[in-house]
Sequence to fold (76 residues):
Amino acid sequence: MAGSSHGHTPAAWTGVTIAFIGFCIASVFMVMAEPIGFWAGMGVVLLGGVVGMAMRAAGLGQKPSPVSVAQARSEA
Fold:
């Protein structure tokens, strides 16, 4: 797994960090029994996914290697 460098990009780190913060927000409000805050935290989780995909589209994600793409096509 470490040899493939899977997920070691600014897009992945940013998206996961934002989603983690959203889960922390949601969990605090769940313990406090405040549904509005819980759903706000879930909104932050979704925002993390959107930000990660936007950063990947902007070129900050992992580029597919030509060898793995050709190999995946031959296996399909």
Summary: The chain has one domain: 2-75. Helices lie at 10-31, 35-60, 66-75. Residues 65 and 71 are 10 Å apart (CA to CA). The two ends are 22 Å apart (CA to CA).
